[in-house]
Design brief:
This protein has about 350 residues and is α+β, with helices and mostly antiparallel strands. It is built from 13 helices and 11 strands. Helix 7 packs across helix 11. It is globular and about 60 Å long. The two termini are about 35 Å apart.
Length: about 350
């Protein structure tokens, strides 16, 4: 199958005018997609290889073309083969926000540029910012995500019998919490809006300084989601007090909205995402052998514990303390006869 796919890629590149281009693999992400930088005649582009049985490029194409029409920095699509799952897209370089920060680019400057993108999106009319046919980040979707916490994390650390025993109680808590979220004021939610998916493009102007990646799962949902995803990053810590400062920066652009209500929704979505991500990271380790994601579990727990202290999440905090005492939240798992500490 790998040989066949390599031949298909060669044919796609030839049809796209990149025959005999050099290829170098890029780091894989949490999906089944693979990426390579291709080079020919001193030009570069990125090859996206998304096996159709595992991934679809259709959503990426739809959201890319929509965001590009609105003036945001997304990789332009040069060529596509939807049937076989190949795209040839613009190379935005190597400087993700994470890499820019390692090169001592100012954290405030970077994050404000990302928030400026969200401010721009959220200031637009919903009919303009959301393409037709966009799925809603509704109750069923949020529930199906948060239950990954039980089905992967709790199962693997505490056993299936314990997980099944407490699953309904956990879902009951989230039924109550998600009923507090109003989906009536929906906007475009990019969904994985964090430092590893943002590119620093300092030679561009305004909101185009922040390049966007990995938005193919975009939905319509609460405006609080993406700003929360940025400031409550499972992969890196912001400097002390920086998240609050940046939250204020975002809120300052919307002086008429109900900040108390917005913060409540932000907190509930934050706890939902941290539970989901803990579950996903365990799934990536156990199902896909992507063990590097386990290094983020402690940070996810710190973030979950912190937000659970907010008044609207009291029932979740009580449930966590009763069922997963603090000393048992970080443990080990066995994978292929090896033990991994987290």
């Amino acid at each position: 199958m790998m040989v066949q796919r390599s031949i298909l890629i060669d044919n796609f590149l030839r049809r796209s005018g990149w025959e005999n281009a050099a290829r170098s693999s890029l780091a894989v992400d949490a999906s089944f997609r693979q990426y390579a930088r291709i080079t020919a005649n001193k030009k570069t582009a990125i090859l996206m290889d998304a096996p159709p049985k595992k991934e679809s490029v259709s959503s990426f194409i739809k959201i890319t073309e929509h965001l590009e029409s609105l003036g945001y920095s997304v990789p332009h699509i040069f060529a596509k083969d939807i049937d076989f799952g190949f795209l040839l897209i613009e190379d935005l370089g190597n400087e993700t926000f994470t890499q820019a920060l390692s090169q001592k680019v100012d954290e405030t400057q970077l994050y404000q540029s990302a928030i400026d993108v969200l401010i721009s999106l959220h200031n637009r009319e919903p009919s303009e910012v959301m393409p037709q046919g966009l799925k809603s980040y509704d109750y069923n979707t949020l529930i199906s995500e948060v239950v990954l916490f039980v089905d992967w994390y709790i199962v693997n650390l505490f056993g299936n019998e314990f997980a099944q025993k407490i699953r309904n109680d956990f879902l009951g808590i989230w039924d109550k919490l998600l009923s507090e979220i109003s989906l009536s004021e929906e906007t475009l939610v990019l969904r994985d809006f964090h430092a590893d998916n943002l590119m620093w493009l300092p030679n561009r102007d305004g909101i185009r300084k922040c390049g966007l990646l990995d938005y193919q799962d975009a939905v319509k949902g609460p405006a609080a989601y993406d700003i929360m995803s940025l400031l409550e990053d499972a992969r890196r810590d912001l400097k002390n007090g920086k998240a609050d400062e940046l939250f204020d920066y975002y809120c300052g652009a919307f002086p008429k909205f109900n900040r108390t209500k917005f913060k409540k929704i932000y907190n509930i979505l934050s706890a939902q995402r941290h539970c989901k991500v803990i579950g996903i990271f365990f799934r990536l380790a156990m199902r896909d052998s992507k063990l590097n994601y386990l290094k983020h579990i402690k940070r996810c727990w710190r973030l979950l514990e912190k937000v659970s202290k907010s008044p609207e999440l009291k029932i979740l905090d009580e449930w966590l303390n009763a069922n997963i005492p603090e000393g048992k939240r970080i443990g080990h798992l066995k994978l292929e006869s090896r033990k991994f500490d987290i």
